[in-house]
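In full, the data:

***
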Amino acid sequence: MIEKEYIDPDKTYWIVEIMPTFQGGQAALFRFLTSNLNYPPEAVRQKQQGQVLCRFTVNKDGSISDIKIVSGVSPALDREALRVLELMPKWTSGKRKGKAVKVRFTLPVDFKL
């Protein structure tokens, strides 16, 4: 007899069989980021650039929550990365054993002059 694995509805997973995806895939995610990012004027003046590494949770319903900076560049660029991630539409949720679950996701946001 095969036992079914219990899926904890409150657990946040790091790796699942089907990882969450942005609606339309990677190309759509890139378009969303580039069309919504506004390079902060103070960062331009100070010639700041780099990659802000962000982490967030994709919830069972595809909504985004718990957005955090893992590795920042500067306060201005970090704030802008957070602002844009808060605008993101719902994703396709991740699945474990066929059930939608919360998944932690890491996303780099690049700023280049």
Remarks:
- The first strand starts at residue 12 and ends at 13.
- The chain has a mean pLDDT of 93.
- Residues 12-111 form a domain with the TolA/TonB C-terminal domain fold (CATH 3.30.2420.10).
